[in-house]
Amino acid sequence: MKHNIYIYILVMFLVSYGLRALPLTLIRKEIKNRTIRSFLYYVPYVTLAVMTFPAIMDSTGAPLAGLLALVIGMVAAWFGAGLFPTAIICSLVVFFAELFLHV
Amino acid sequence: MNKDNRHWFLNGLKDGIPIAAGYFAVSFALGITARNAGLSAFQATLASLLTNTSSGEYAGFAVMASDASYFTMAVMILIVCARYLLMSISLSQKLPENTSLFHRMLVGFWITDEIYGASSTLPGKLNPFYNYGCAICSLSFWALGTCLGVVVGNILPARLVSAFGVLLFGMFLAIIMPEGKRNKVVACLIFISMAASFACAKLPVVSNISEGTRIIILTVVISLFAAVLFPIKDDHFDEDKANKNMAASVDETDDKVKTGEEK
Fold it and tell me: Residue B87 and residue A20: Cβ atoms within 8 Å?
């Protein structure tokens, strides 16, 4: 690895903290631009969706187990399962799926 | 700490307990990711204590694993954590105007999806000590889980590691799906994003681009298209304001009302 992990962490800290603290300390007025507000609104959903698939299939021993966890997790979250239950459900699906798939 | 602050701090601690349980499991998975990216337990715990963000840290560790530039890391965190900007703006309206710079900076430091969710939905103005209670309770487990993920992740059987690793994705799904249910545009975007992400990961040429850069490009392009084609209605943001006005009138009549069972 050519890069220093502590500098990586420092960059992570500075950027994430800047995003969190600057508006709180500087901007007291609301952002008026509708496109910027819409963009900021959509960003988390798009980025989390992009990060989840297909990565979820690479994180498991068998890609099929990851795919099953994705589908069942989405259904569970759709029907109101919270953060913790959804995470546990996905985890159990992978565990049992890999058991049956003999990974 | 005066009596009011103490009260809000304890309230925050209490509300932080379920968040802590979720964080512990998820950060354990994050620790495993960190270990795979080559971080020591100390480094991973430090990253968790300083950044407090599941998706941001996950993305950050992915950048480290691919040994990309510091600039890539900065852009990556900027994109993945962009939502904190919105939360910070929202909380700036929620804090009393005379809140000191110190408190503003500390509240900002501990903005997470869950702490924001809990504190921004409280009635009336926000006492920063609520956030501190919530953060100290939940984020200590966030750091502990990350640390244990690195240390114990080593000796866990592969099957358990892959089961734990999926916890994080489960949490992501739990964050995005409820909004998808409320908003059909978001629901479509989730599917489009996943399909595009899959295509980019498998197609020749584009799949050579690193995962981190791919996430950034897809996020910006898809969100920008959505923002231009489907700008959100103004009442989406006015919801907050309406709540605040309602609570403000209660505020003056009886301060003790809002200190009751608000959760």
Answer: yes
